[in-house]
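Pipeline run #58 for the internal structure catalog. This entry was flagged by the ingest filter as a single-chain record with no existing model, so it goes straight to prediction. Upstream metadata was stripped on purpose; only the residue string is passed forward. Reviewer on rotation: M.T. Logging verbosity set to normal.
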Amino acid sequence: MAKDPDIYDRLSRVEEIIEQLDANECDLDEGTALHEEGEELLDEVRSLLNDGSGDVIEIE
């Protein structure tokens, strides 16, 4: 089962990437590299979620 930090760390980085891209402070090459990194991170998150046992738990 995927651990929360595995997912949250990746999603936090994706949020950072989005902020960088929205700020328009990078050139085309850097923006392309950031976009590719974000896509890879999202693929990893999808994989982690798909590998989960499918159990739903309530977090208090």
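catalog note: Residues 29 and 35 are 10 Å apart (CA to CA).
catalog note: The mean pLDDT is 86.
status: ready for reviewer M.T.
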